[in-house]
Design goal:
By secondary structure, the chain is α/β, with parallel strands linked by helices. It is built from 11 helices and 6 strands. The protein has 3 domains: about 70 residues; about 160 residues, no CATH class; about 35 residues, no CATH class. The longest helix is centred in the last third of the chain and has 31 residues.
C-alpha cells in the first residue's frame, strides 16, 4: 500500500479547499491507523516515518511526515496519544478527582485488581539473588524502549531512553543502582544500543567518562557515589554494519550533525577527530573527486524489523543471564504463590470475623 502525505494547503482556505484538506488528512490518518496492527508498541512520530518508508515515503520527506502526523493529532484525525511520549518528566501529586465506587462494584474491583492480581504477581524472592550480573539497557531513541521492553521485562533488565545524552540525575540514579548491585555481589553491566554513526559507535567510551565525573559526589540525604565505575562492563550492541546490511535497514546518505553541518566536510570542527576519521575509513567511500560520501543508520530503523530487533536484544543479554538461575527463581516464585493461595481463605475468615 503506497501512502501519500497530505499537501501543505498553505494560504487562504475556501470551503472547497478546506474540504479537500480535511479529506487528505482524514485519509492519511486512516492509513496510519490501519498500520498500527503491524507493531505491538507505540512509536514516536520519527518511528512512524520508518514504517511509512516501506510504503513509499522517501528520506527527504521524514520531517514533513512528522509534521503531518502531529497535525493529524492536533486536528483530531488521530488520537492525541497516537505517538509515544518522549518526555522524561510528568506531573506529580493528586488532582483531587479520585472517587470510589458502590459497595458490590468496589468488592469486585478489590478482588480482581488487588487480591487476584497480587496472587498472580506475588514474588517474595529477588531476581538479583539468582543472577551473577546486574544488567541495565540504554537506548538512544524512545522507539527502542517499546521495541526492547518485552525482552527486558522477561530478564528483569531496566531500559532507559538516553536520547543522545543522559541528564545528571538519571546518570546518578543509574550509578547508584550499579553501586548497590556491586555491594550485593553482582557484576554491573550496561548494554547500549544507539545509532550507527560516528558518535553512536563510541557511546560506550564516553559513558564511562560521564560516570567517572560523578564518582565521590553525594545526594541530599548524604548517600555518596563511592563505587569505582571502571568496574562496570559497558557493551555497545545493535546497529552494526553487517546487521544493517543483512536486514536491509534504511540508511541516511549523509553525516549531518545536530549543528546542521556535514561531518565529511573538512571544515567541520569534528571532522579531524579520530572517531570521525575511523568511521569514514571503515564505513564510507570517496567519490571521483576524492570527497567522502558518508552514511548513517538511525536506531529507529529497527521498528521495521521487530522480531530481528528483539532477537538482537536477547542475544546481547544472553551472556549475562544465568538460565539455571532463571529456572530456580521461577520455581521459588511458584512455590511461594502456592503457599499464599493456601493461606488466604483462613486469613480472610479471621479478618472478616474480627
Amino acid at each position: 500500500m503506497k501512502i501519500e502525505l497530505p499537501p501543505s494547503f498553505r494560504g487562504a482556505m475556501s470551503s472547497r479547499r478546506q474540504a479537500e484538506r480535511d479529506a487528505a488528512y482524514r485519509t492519511f490518518a486512516e492509513q496510519l491507523q490501519a498500520l498500527t496492527g503491524t507493531v505491538d508498541y507505540k512509536l514516536s512520530a520519527r518511528g512512524w516515518c520508518y514504517i511509512l518508508e516501506e510504503h513509499g515515503l522517501s528520506k527527504d520527506q521524514f520531517d514533513i511526515a512528522e509534521s503531518r502526523i502531529n497535525i493529524c493529532r492536533k486536528d483530531g484525525w488521530l488520537p492525541l496519544d497516537f505517538t509515544a511520549d518522549d518526555s522524561a518528566r510528568g506531573p506529580q501529586g493528586d488532582d483531587g478527582t479520585g472517587c470510589d465506587y458502590p459497595v458490590l462494584e468496589e468488592l469486585g474491583f478489590i478482588w480482581d485488581a488487588h487480591i487476584q492480581d497480587h496472587l498472580n504477581r506475588y514474588a517474595p524472592v529477588r531476581w538479583v539473588d539468582f543472577q551473577p550480573y546486574y544488567v541495565e539497557v540504554g537506548v538512544e531513541k524512545v522507539d527502542l524502549v517499546g521495541l526492547n521492553m518485552p525482552v527486558c521485562r522477561e530478564f528483569r533488565a531496566m531500559v532507559s531512553n538516553f536520547r543522545g545524552d543522559v541528564d545528571i540525575n538519571s546518570k546518578a540514579q543509574m550509578y547508584l543502582r550499579f553501586q548497590a548491585a556491586s555491594g550485593r555481589g553482582q557484576q554491573p553491566v550496561l548494554l547500549l544500543e544507539g545509532d550507527h554513526d560516528p558518535k553512536g559507535l563510541q557511546i560506550h567510551e564516553y559513558m564511562l567518562d560521564q560516570f567517572l565525573e560523578l564518582q565521590g559526589l553525594a545526594f541530599a540525604d548524604g548517600t555518596r557515589l563511592t563505587w569505582d565505575p571502571r568496574e562496570l562492563i559497558i557493551v555497545r550492541f545493535g546497529l552494526n554494519a553487517d546487521f544493517i546490511s543483512k536486514q536491509g535497514l534504511s540508511r541516511i546518505q549523509n553525516l549531518i550533525t545536530g549543528s546542521g553541518r556535514e561531518l565529511t566536510d573538512p571544515h567541520h570542527p569534528d571532522h579531524s577527530k579520530p572517531y570521525v576519521q575511523d568511521y569514514l575509513q571503515r564505513f564510507c567511500a570517496r567519490d571521483a573527486d576524492g570527497r567522502w560520501r558518508g552514511w548513517k543508520c538511525e536506531a529507529n530503523a529497527l521498528v521495521t524489523r521487530t522480531e530481528a530487533g528483539r532477537e538482537l536484544m536477547r542475544a546481547a543479554l544472553g551472556p549475562y543471564v544465568d538460565l539455571d538461575g532463571v529456572r530456580r527463581y521461577h520455581e521459588a516464585v511458584k512455590k511461594a504463590r502456592a503457599e499464599l493461595r493456601a493461606a488466604l481463605p483462613e486469613f480472610l475468615r479471621k479478618k472478616l470475623a474480627a
